[in-house]
Amino acid sequence: MIRLPGADGQLHAYEPRPEPAPPVARGPGRPDPGRQPARTVFAAAHVVAAPQAAGEGAPAAVDWDATLAFRHHLWAHGLRVAEAMDTAQRGAGLTWPAAAALIRRSAAEARTVGGGLVCGVGTDHLTGPARTLHEVVAAYEQQLAVVEGAGADAVLLASRALAALARGADDYLWVYERVVRQAARPVVLHWLGPMFDPALHGYWGSADLDLAGETLLAVVAAHPGRIDGIKVSLLDADREVALRRRLPAGVRCYTGDDFHYPQLIAGDGRGHSDALLGVFDPLAPLAADAVRALGDGPAGRRRFHALLEPTVPLARHLFAAPTQHYKTGVVLLAWLAGHQRDFVMLGGQHTARSLPHLARAYQLADTIGLFPDPTLAEARMRHLLTSHGVPA
Q1: 254 — phi, psi (to 5°)?
Q2: With a threshold of 0.90, does the pTM exceed it?
Q3: 3-class SS shares of the chain: helix, strand, coil, % to 5
């Protein structure tokens, strides 16, 4: 029994799972050419910080070995990796030099196992506000060259610099026209809502989401064959479905909705969403197993829902407002699951959530059998609690 602090300020008894859930099958180390997956699924991966390197000149104090080992964990389960995205603390601790190193290293590792990889291309290396749209385009070009030079495909991240400078939809159309046409391979467009990053309020030229969506669809329509898909992170399932139904044939909708992902990935009679999700970082084994099952007819569809629906309460807790701090819970779960030695984050972001919030994340994860070693998870949670003054 472990006593967990609750939001009410009281300690509540919780009995951890005595044993792990049955092991989840791993995916193929390399893509299986004989079987196409039911969905294209990326897990946006976090970075592991190295506290012992802080202040010693290491770029952003990234623990490279543990960070890359986690990518292999995702690939081993058959998931693809979305690299240097919001989940990796882009703009919240991960500098562009460190992100560029991460992209190059991950791309090299992906080649050793045939792992799927896309990488974030943004403008976050700008040291001050962009003065012109040309500067925004040049910033995108610089990062695009790094990603394509590493042999990876690009996700064009929503740009804080563009959001601050643009005066309407035409400015977005002008910038994306120039960047998309320079990409060597089809790109993914990224709509990250302000709940994930308040600096992106009014992205695509309007705070009216209907108008903003029209601008995004106009960019897609203007570049046939150059857009692989759109990644929608608005936590609004109805809006995402409406957008995906208007996409041209061959253009994917990648859900970034960490609240409604089971229903969006399962889809309906008129289509489905693929996925590029931060919540699939901690949920990797269950998520991969569920998506594999989805291609096995009605029984597989039932298994898909049986595996993923119980994970939703944990996801909603991790991504509760202020949503931009969801990464703290993601890293906590990686530490509890044994994927890294320390519960620390770049820029001290591990302090962004309260102790009761972290305790609840542990309980929800343990309840669904997420930890491969429940005894280790319990011991680490006890250590975290006692280090914050909670009596054992």
Answers
A1: -95, 115
A2: yes
A3: 50, 15, 40
**DSSP summary character for residue 24:** P
For residue 101, what are the contacts with CB-CB under 8 A and spacing of at least 6?
59, 62
Measured distance CA(90)–CA(73) in Å, rounded = 21
The amino acid that residue 68 corresponds to is L
Q: Please give the Cα distance from 256 to 194 (Å, whole number).
A: 13
Q: Which two tokens stand for residue 274?
A: 């693929």
Residue pLDDT, tens place only, 131-188: 999 999 999 999 999 999 999 999 999 999 999 999 999 999 999 999 999 999 999 9
Q: Report the distance separating Cα 281 and Cα 283, nearest Å.
A: 6
In the chain the first and final C-alpha atoms are separated, in Å, by: 10
How far from 320 is each of 69, 189, 358, 371, CA to CA, in Å?
28, 25, 12, 22
Helix (H, G, I), strand (E, B) or coil at 348: helix
Strand partners, 90: 94
Residue 356: how many CB atoms within 10 A of its CB?
16
- According to DSSP, the residues that pair with 230 across neighbouring strands are 189, 253
Q: Which candidate, 348, 343, 339, 340, places its Cα nearest to that of 359? A: 343
